[in-house]
Amino acid sequence: MSRLLVLVRHGQSDWNLKNLFTGWKDPDLTEAGIAEARAAGRKLKEQGIVFDRAYTSDLIRAQHTLALIQEELGQTDLPVVRDLALNERNYGDLSGLNKDDARQRWGEEQVHVWRRSYDVPPPGGESLKDTVARVLPYYVQNILPAVLRGEKVLVAAHGNSLRALLMVLERLTPETIPTVELATGVPLVYRLNADSTVESKAILEA
């Protein structure tokens, strides 16, 4: 039984390029992001993985990334579930603002707290703790059971929603998770034990 779980953060989006807080806003991929997604698909194809199902968020940058990966894999008929539970962290009033402009408005220290603390949300938005509280039940109820049945599962989502999953998979703490960075378009390949702990992890870097 394979118990394979692959996580991929979406390729570079237009707002990543412009240094804007994105959150639940819905910009698409840049040309570089499209290339990253296709490269991720090729890396996974080199591993010979044939997926059984995929999950993604309600946002186009993650959906587009998944579609491009599927094209490269030759698995465009893969069953896909889209759910806002896997959406990026909601940045509230920061959404759409340039990060440098936000620092000028609220101060470097305050913006750093909003971005990197575990449990302090920006105005009108979610903290990482809030995001974890949204993502983890969905993982436990929907994604993990499929993996434990022996299905090969692909998840294309976002930096913060995937960091929520890493907290469980890698047993990270509220103190350590804020420092974890996920590169865009780089697959993380996990093989799980029967008790849902991680047997192995591989990073398929370009």
What features would you describe in this structure?
The protein has a six-stranded mixed sheet. It is an alpha/beta fold. The chain has one domain: Rossmann fold (3-Layer(aba) Sandwich), CATH 3.40.50. Helix content is 40%, strand content 15%. Helix 2 (31-46) packs across helix 3. The radius of gyration is 17 Å and the shape is globular. Belongs to the phosphoglycerate mutase family. BPG-dependent PGAM subfamily. One of its GO terms (molecular function) is phosphoglycerate mutase activity. Keywords: Gluconeogenesis, Glycolysis, Isomerase. Substrate binds at residues 9-16, 22-23, 61, 88-91, 99, 115-116, 159-160.
**Mean pLDDT across every amino acid position:** 96
**What is the spatial order of strands in the main beta sheet?**
3-2-4-1-5-6
How many whole angstroms does the radius of gyration measure? 17 Å
Outline type: globular
Work out the count of structural domains. 1
Content of β-strand: 5-15%
Helicity range = 40-55%
The number of helical runs is 7
Main sheet overview: 6 strands, mixed
CATH superfamily: Phosphoglycerate mutase-like
Name the structural class.
Answer: alpha/beta
Tell me, what is the CATH class?
Alpha Beta
EC number: 5.4.2.11
Pfam family, one: His_Phos_1
Keywords: Gluconeogenesis, Glycolysis, Isomerase
Function: Catalyzes the interconversion of 2-phosphoglycerate and 3-phosphoglycerate.
